[in-house]
Amino acid sequence: MEVKSVVAKARKAQAIFEKNFSQEQVDEIVQTVAQTVYDNAHRLSELAVEETGMGVVEDKIAKCHGKSTGVWHDLKDKKSMGVLRVDETTNLVEIGKAIGVVAGITPSTNPVVTPMSKIMFALKTKNAIIIAPHPKAARCSGLTVELINKALQKFNVPEGLVQILSNPSVEKTQELMRSCDVVVATGGMAMVKSAYSSGKPSFGVGAGNVQVILDRQIDYQEAALKVITGRKFDNGIICSGEQSFIYHEDDRAEVMAAFVAQGAYVVPDQERQLVVEAIFENGGLAKDAVGQSVNFIAAKAGISVPAGIKVLVLEAKGIGEADIICKEKMCPVLAAFSYKNIDEAIQIATANLLLEGSGHTAGIHSNNQENIRKAGSRIPVSRLIVNAPCATTAGGSVEGGLAFTNTLGCGSWGGNSISENFTYKHLLNVTRIASISRKKVSAPKPKPTLV
């Protein structure tokens, strides 16, 4: 009964919002959503770590600041209602219209910024939104929505425009998805598949397993710093976080020395299986290892690591299905692979992505434009990050041109409907007015058939 009444309330609110609020008012409202999360970053981040038991407070604060600023940067000058565009050549007119009620499915790994960005995208396009949080993150997601609604009261927005399911469950989420107009699902693959089978238009994401190629003749110290920065961010729970690095076999000593200098512990062969068993159980990630620190992983594995270590590095014994460490590792652990030439490096990255993470993200550190283009052409991903930490740029980058979001489409490779970063434009219906000229046009003479 709760879901039905929540959806009914949202439909009523959306109709009022769509009819009575201008572009300028909507933009001020959207900015306020971002400002609310920015201003409450410390409180929300502390609660997120306390409630979920995952991640790093300081990194979550940085994420709240970065995502709120970035999403607003993308949205502030964009027209999202009425006449969006008139084609100068054909006079085709495009008119943007709201979809209705959005079901926003959000994960425990990003329980603050994911609801925020979905709310911003929905309100920018005059939709109502209902957040269905992960049960493990109901309190911090609930507080996020509560603070946003309190901040929006001064605009007299209709009650029910932004809501969140109380006491969330799989059953409530599934009912919400069947009852809304569009689903935006961020979370585990089971939830995303459920969204796509809900009978409603859906946007979901695929699994991440970011493979990073280290080309030759680069600054390995700089590359190692960036890879480690991405891998350790929020204890490795970012789907776009680096998972593996792939280096030329002749440069092994220099590469490993660079990683050690930047805070990596290269796990000795005799300790390797202990770490593998600490992060994987029954062929999948061990739940108690997700989003945990290096010290936690080392203690669970029963090994000792020097103070100040940021990530663990495991050298792979094969690619793809040949070694379980080729899969996604949502904790500060990296797999390392060697290659003989750039073509083999691309082959390694592709094999690992086809095992898990196809369509998501890959990275390359290179000064060779030909190799960068070759990697982008061959690796089955929706985004290739060049010379930057993947974890903090794949989900939005002013310099790189990627839209700020927390929902990263993986295309057909990852079983998704889009192969780009999800943003406000995906929550618009567009009417196109095509004015066909009545001027008589003489038909072209048919060309003779060639025998």
From TrEMBL:
CDD domains from the UniProt entry: ALDH_F20_ACDH
Keywords from the UniProt entry: Oxidoreductase
Domain Aldehyde dehydrogenase: 2-262
Pfam families: Aldedh (PF00171)
GO molecular function: oxidoreductase activity, acting on the aldehyde or oxo group of donors, NAD or NADP as acceptor
InterPro entries hit by this protein: Ald_DH/histidinol_DH (IPR016161), Ald_DH_C (IPR016163), Ald_DH_N (IPR016162), Aldehyde_DH_dom (IPR015590)
Protein name: Aldehyde dehydrogenase family protein
Record organism: Candidatus Geothrix skivensis
Lineage, top ranks: Bacteria, Pseudomonadati, Acidobacteriota, Holophagae, Holophagales
